[in-house]
Write a structure and sequence with these properties.
Number of strands of chain B: 17
Oligomer: heterodimer
Number of domains of chain B: 3
Shape of chain B: globular
CATH class of the largest domain in chain B: Alpha Beta
CATH architecture of the largest domain in chain B: 2-Layer Sandwich
Number of helices of chain B: 8
Largest sheet of chain B: 11 strands, antiparallel
Shape of chain A: globular
Number of domains of chain A: 2
Radius of gyration of chain B: 21 Å
Largest sheet of chain A: 7 strands, mixed
Strand order of the largest sheet of chain A: 1-4-5-7-8-9-10
Order of helices and strands of chain B: HEHEEEEHEHEEHEEEHEHEEEEHE
CATH topology of the largest domain in chain B: Alpha-Beta Plaits
Structural class of chain B: alpha+beta
């Protein structure tokens, strides 16, 4: 007995829907984790500024080069005791599949070699450590795998320590706190080891104002995150009503550079928001019919602000983008490139 | 006893309004209804924007002295609902004394909700309806009662608890013995006992009978206009704009250092203690009209929602703070009117909160 075409079509539609829903859920988690990562970076910075004497938070947007001249961009940079440094990598979520996880962790190999770009006279330090911050949900799995790979030589990192973090409600005070602690290994900074061993608690409420100014870390945000910021907060600076309008990427960059200041508070080479993120977000709007490219005017977009989105905007754009992504996958034609570094789970799926 | 600052109308205008009140109240079930708008724009300019396929407003300036202008107006509104056409016509006065615009009518229902409230809605955000809190109502009634030495008792009151559930406590109106009715302050106490706030209350006393609401609607059933103007109409607007001062120039674009300057909204009970209530807040926010929103963090433990007010493309975020407060965080462009509109929404659909300066 063969299935009728209708049944096949219905089955395929159902499968498509399931895939979309699964992808949406993953994207929503990514989004929330990114938000939490920003808070983590802010919280860690604030904590060190208040409690550490030796160890200092140098930046969250550095650009280092290694001996081969390749660029290295850790999430946070700490320095202590004059010429000693720690490169920190924050992972919002780590892939479930071993080969992807190894691929992601292999990035850390570059941090183990000598890098140049420190805040010292010769831009070098005498000793450098690597710290990986992973979410408490990922910690046990990552630790086990990492030790195994280091032992069998698949992962060549040295001087690495592992921290876990989580955002949770303190059962006593009922306040929401960021908990960060050192679980494995130690750095060459005794002060930091001591602080992290006894757990760092940061009251998340203390970060509300800072978050508004620092909404992006060095890591590329999920595309929905940038789109959300642009649509809900940035576009209103250009248009005072809900009519469609045209805008250039340059104008948008001007605004985001002005309001989302650099982490070090200094305007300079390394802005908080990157041009390619903005471009990608604008492309995203075009994909889902909320913007159009203007013919013959490169880098000018018509934003279709007059469209009414009745439901949660983030949910709406996530759903639309996932539909596009799944459909293009089905048609074997990638429409929208979503950064694999940010969305390992997406690449798992696809 | 507190001294009450008294604002009066020019003498001839006062006479005119009293005459109008007297005539309107003479009719069977007659009453005068007023609502207050805050606007810096002259009424004739505002009125020009009102005419549409659904509504026609005509106006005529009949008084202009001492910074007070009175327009005599007529309005026609045509609506079609479920295929049934309806025409509502009537007259009203627009009394402008900057920065307030009072819409006053002796027309019977549904002129107030269908025409005057509709006018107010269409004038937003150029004109914003003023509103007060339950405590303000209590204060206004107390001041009136003490200054005029009139004992006020209530016949009914509507109270709302969290998330907009409304209840009416009505006395049997046929009772002849006035002593059977309780003092107005009891109504406020009763509402509090229910964890709720008085939304509207109908009271009477010697030669007076009226109802007053948090939305700034005053309905006069008995009494003279002069007293009501002095003790309620003119004061409600001032209370509102005094409280709204905190929403002024909050946008980051309006700060020289592009600062973020949040406003803390305090509730007097622990409204955000449980996850269920925080989740309910999100559900309510989804009903906020003319806006787009994104739930960035969904209530465990905090709620963080970004809101874009589509009326004037103004944006802010809302975040639960302590168990009894939330913060409104202005963004690059955030208008005063959008924050006022949102605080009115909180009062109507959630709970009465008092805005204050936020300090870490």
């Amino acid at each position: 007995m063969t299935l009728s075409d209708d049944k096949v079509a219905a089955f395929e539609a159902q499968q498509r829907q399931k895939k979309i829903e699964k992808l949406c859920d993953e994207r929503m988690v990514e989004y929330d984790r990114y938000y939490q990562t920003v808070l983590l970076t802010l919280g860690f910075k604030k904590y060190l500024e208040a409690h550490a004497r030796d160890c200092r938070f140098v930046s969250a947007e550095p650009c280092f080069t290694n001996v081969d001249g390749a660029e290295i961009r850790p999430d946070m940079v700490l320095q202590h005791n004059g010429k000693q440094g720690i490169l920190c990598e924050i992972k919002t979520s780590l892939p479930l599949k071993d080969e992807h996880l190894l691929g992601t962790l292999k990035q850390l190999e570059r941090y183990s070699k000598e890098v140049i770009g420190w805040e010292t006279i010769d831009r070098k330090v005498d000793h450098q450590d690597v710290m990986l911050f992973c979410h408490a949900f990922d910690y046990d799995r990552v630790l086990e795998k990492m030790n195994q790979w280091i032992a069998d030589g698949a992962l060549k990192v040295s001087e690495i320590s592992l921290c876990e973090w989580v955002m949770a409600q303190n059962p006593k005070t009922r306040k929401e706190e960021l908990l960060i602690r050192l679980r494995d290994g130690r750095t060459s900074c005794d002060e930091l080891n001591m602080l992290l061993k006894k757990n760092i608690n940061v009251d998340v409420q203390q970060l509300v104002v800072e978050y508004e100014e620092c909404k992006f870390t060095r890591k590329e945000p999920p595309i929905e995150y940038t789109m959300n910021q642009l649509w809900l907060h940035v576009f209103s600076e250009i248009s005072k009503n809900s009519a469609d309008f045209e805008v250039s990427t340059e104008k948008l960059l001007e605004i985001v550079y002005e309001y989302y200041i650099t982490w070090s508070n200094v305007k300079g080479e390394y802005s908080q928001v990157r041009e390619k993120w903005i471009k990608k977000a604008l492309q995203g709007f075009c994909e889902i019919g909320l913007a159009e490219e203007v013919p013959d005017k490169p880098s000018i977009y018509k934003i279709l602000m007059s469209k009414k989105i009745e439901k949660d905007f983030q949910e709406y754009i996530t759903e639309k983008l996932c539909e596009k992504s799944i459909d293009s996958k089905i048609a074997q034609k990638p429409v929208l490139e979503i950064n694999k570094d940010v969305t390992p789970s997406l690449s798992d799926f696809i | 006893m507190r001294t009450v600052e008294i604002d009066s109308l020019p003498f001839s205008l006062d006479l005119l309004m009293n005459e109008y009140t007297k005539l309107s109240l003479k009719k069977k079930w007659g009453s005068i209804k007023t609502l207050t708008l805050y606007s810096e724009s002259p009424f004739d300019l505002l009125a020009k924007t009102l005419n549409s396929s659904e509504m026609e407003v005509q106006y005529n300036k009949i008084f202009d002295a001492e910074g007070t202008i009175l327009f005599s107006c007529s309005a026609l509104r045509e609506t079609i609902k479920n295929g049934v056409e309806s025409h509502i016509t009537g007259n009203f006065y627009a009394l402008q004394k900057m920065p307030f615009l009072y819409l006053i009518t002796g027309e019977r229902n549904p002129f107030l909700p269908k025409v005057l409230a509709y006018i107010a809605k269409n004038l937003y955000p150029t004109a914003i309806r003023t509103f007060v809190t339950s405590d303000d109502l209590l204060q206004l009634l107390t001041d009136f009662s003490e200054t005029k030495q009139i004992e006020l008792r209530y016949t009914e009151f509507v109270y709302k608890n969290m998330f907009e559930k409304a209840f009416t406590d009505r006395r049997n109106e046929k009772r002849e013995d006035r002593g059977q009715y309780e003092r107005f302050s009891t109504a406020f106490r009763k509402a509090r006992e229910q964890g709720a706030r008085v939304d509207r209350i109908k009271v009477f006393g010697k030669d007076v009978s009226f109802s007053i609401s948090r939305s700034g609607v005053l309905k006069i059933f008995l009494g003279n206009f002069t007293d009501y103007y002095q003790f309620f109409i003119s004061r409600m607007g001032n209370i509102a704009i005094e409280r709204w001062k905190i929403f002024e120039k909050r946008a980051r674009a309006e700060s020289p250092n592009k600062q973020v300057r949040p406003v803390l909204v305090n509730f007097d009970s622990n409204v955000f203690e449980n996850v269920a209530e925080r989740k309910l807040l999100i559900r309510i926010l989804a009903d906020y009209k003319n806006c787009e929103y994104s739930v960035i963090h969904g209530g465990n433990p905090h709620v963080y929602v970004a809101i874009l007010d589509k009326i004037d493309n103004s944006s802010f975020t809302v975040r639960t703070y302590e168990n009894n407060s939330l913060i409104l965080i202005p963004q690059i462009r955030t208008t005063k009117s959008s924050l006022v509109r949102f605080s009115k929404f909180l009062l109507d659909k959630f709970q009465e909160g008092i805005p204050a300066e936020f300090q870490l």
